[in-house]
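Forum: Protein Structure Q&A
Topic: Joint prediction for protein chains with partners

I've read a bunch of threads here and the consensus seems to be that you should model interacting components together rather than docking separate models afterwards. I'd like to see that in practice. Below is the full input, 222 residues plus whatever partners are listed. Could one of the regulars post the assembled result?
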Amino acid sequence: GAGVSQSPSNKVTEKGKDVELRCDPISGHTALYWYRQSLGQGLEFLIYFQGNSAPDKSGLPSDRFSAERTGGSVSTLTIQRTQQEDSAVYLCASSLGGRKGLFFGSGTQLSVL
Amino acid sequence: GQQVMQIPQYQHVQEGEDFTTYCNSSTTLSNIQWYKQRPGGHPVFLIQLVKSGEVKKQKRLTFQFGEAKKNSSLHITATQTTDVGTYFCRATNAGKSTFGDGTTLTVKP
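Posted by a regular:
Agreed with the consensus. Here's the joint model:
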């Protein structure tokens, strides 16, 4: 596609439920990132995939968070047993490599009730 | 670990005034990138600086990378209402990248 695509754009869930967020990066981009942004706040790094290398998971806030990237393309961020503090916009970005500019998707607004 | 400080946190200007945001690192950087996020939008990549003392221009925006590669600035000449948003720097050192907390610019027409 022309840009990074994220789905769903909005997700409302109940506390304790699991959610899956999807990211379709720009074709040919080897690097894929997940960030979290709370209202009016900065960009909190979650996880980084680069090619076939082991992902950098250093930003995942707890073991309830996990992500995978299948076939070097689509990525899914999974949050288990969601908590109210997980409410935020989850942004995915892709780039041509670790030293190139990031291109962000429009994000998924997650609301945990 | 790497620390990136971005100042100011907020800047309110009258339309037509200039604006500058600064990004300072505690370590020497391999590159620095700048992004703009409009209200309600997602960050958009503006530019990457790599060389010591590098200066790049995009219309009314001027980007500089310090001689020591520890700081950078984004300057907007004669701000317009379309410039509103939050400007983030992203600093890279030894393969690790960190976003600054951003400078939020508001422009009064």
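The interface with chain A takes residues 30-31, 33, 35, 41-45, 47-48, 88, 90, 92, 95, 97-102 of chain B (CB under 8 Å).
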